[in-house]
Amino acid sequence: MTVGSADSLNLYLFSTLYNQILNDNVPIKLQIRTQQCSYNYMLLENREIDIGFTVTQFRYKNIITTPLLSEPMFLVCRTNSNYNLVPSTQVNLTLRKSFL
Question: What is the largest CA-CA distance in the chain?
């Protein structure tokens, strides 16, 4: 199996999985290709990789994209800055508590 993924995904998200596959002697020939996310689509269409992981979704006729995970992102700034777009009282408290 050949996996295509961005460097950041391979390094921070999948490195533990890759190491576990190697250490557990899983009977699979695993090749990992690291490149820009948009390049994975071309490699997949050309059958140079079997699956790809990307942070950007593009529409290709013969490729299916399935969201795997998402994570909230917050703007953090001083209260007196020009970037204070949403008062903290309006932020979903359920999400805020999960990061405290």
Answer: 58
CA distances from 21 to 3, 4, 30 (A): 13, 16, 9
d(CA 93, CA 67): 25
Which two three-digit tokens encode residue 20?
A: 């576990």
Q: Which two tokens stand for residue 18?
A: 């890759």
Question: Which pLDDT score, from 0 to 100, does residue 91 have?
Answer: 59
Give the pTM: 0.66
Backbone angles phi, psi at 49, to 5 degrees: -130, 155
Please write the tens of the pLDDT for every residue from 43-67: 999 999 999 998 888 888 889 999 8
Cβ neighbours of residue 20 under 8 Å, at least 6 residues apart?
none
Identify residue 67 by its one-letter amino acid code: P
How far is Cα 46 from Cα 50, in angstroms, rounded to an integer? 10
CB 48 within 8 A of CB 2: yes
